[in-house]
Amino acid sequence: MELQSYIAKNGTTINIEKGQQVFTQGELCEHVYLVKTGLLKAFYLTENGKETIKSFIQSGTIIGSLNAAHCQVPSTFSLEALEQCRLVQIPLNELLALSKESISISQEFIQILLSLSLKKERREFELLTLSASQRFDNLRNTDPELVKKLTQNDIAKYLGITPVALSRIKHQ
Amino acid sequence: MELQSYIAKNGTTINIEKGQQVFTQGELCEHVYLVKTGLLKAFYLTENGKETIKSFIQSGTIIGSLNAAHCQVPSTFSLEALEQCRLVQIPLNELLALSKESISISQEFIQILLSLSLKKERREFELLTLSASQRFDNLRNTDPELVKKLTQNDIAKYLGITPVALSRIKHQ
DNA sequence: AGACAGCATTAACCTATGTTAAAAATAACG
DNA sequence: CGTTATTTTTAACATAGGTTAATGCTGTCT
Description:
The structure is a homodimer.
Chain A: H1 2-10, E1 12-16, E2 21-23, E3 31-37, E4 39-45, E5 51-58, E6 62-63, H2 66-71, E7 78-81, E8 85-91, H3 92-101, H4 103-129, H5 132-142, H6 144-149, H7 152-159, H8 163-170
Antiparallel strand pairs in A: 1-8, 2-7, 3-6, 3-8, 4-5, 4-7
Helix pairs in contact in A: 3-4, 7-8
The first copy, chain A, binds a DNA duplex through residues 131-133, 151-153, 161-171.
């Protein structure tokens, strides 16, 4: 947890109101964020204006558009606060540079990336093999607290279905 | 590319016949593989015996059940040769240990994990926002050569639909 | 060539989810 | 409190994709 404390010390704290965006799809975003308090959603907006939620981000997590920050390209998604949030912001470059100096930071980075890839793999598996209602059950079992905090609209967008379909699924 | 040459030197070369499995879902798999030649598929088998393909692996790629190897848990997927393959095998532990000694190896690891996460993100995006036929178009545009080599069955399993549905999609 | 195996197509019918729109419930606010 | 917004439910219909099964195609072995 050297990394987290480095960020806490050297990053700049920002407050985000509910509904505000931390960064926006299509824009450059060179930072990485450590979530101190609050809850956020990372989401895509497709050409035809449809929103789909990539993930929900809870406190204690490090989040950022890694590829955007790393490759200096526009972010493919937006990050928005679902509640009032307190974040600590730091340029990814700074962390990467740091990791070049310190083995233990590198190692931590590797750990973070490995666990991120685990998360993505689970998600991929679910999208590929489970029906919408199975995915919903999964979410409810995995993180019932989170489900309580979310609006049905956002849950649906996360599951990849419409709120109407989710309402139907619930009544069974 | 220090990592690749380390693997090439210190790993053990194995040959896999078409149809053979490199490792199997449910088993431990502590190795990571560098694909020298050939083509493979990584796939899940669900409880009800349905197969879905996670990804196709072409030569030059490093593949393995990272989480299985790292956390010493059974792999969640199998790896099978679609053509006769030549691989170089090495324990992930050995690479992780190595990365603790060498900053440049750590850095390479980080690069690999970052690009892996980019790939997964694209896949997640597609599964979440595109229809089956859009996903098929995408695949055809991104890697037409690959599509030629694959059976329609495998393409369908990769897209998350049945071969019947894929056949329908093609005729439009 | 003939016989078989493995793929691909087609068709008929079924189910899950999308779409639109209206009604009902809940939350937010003066 | 009563009034507006916002979210959720319900209903009716449309569509994509699943299921099963039959048919056709291609290649391989003898």
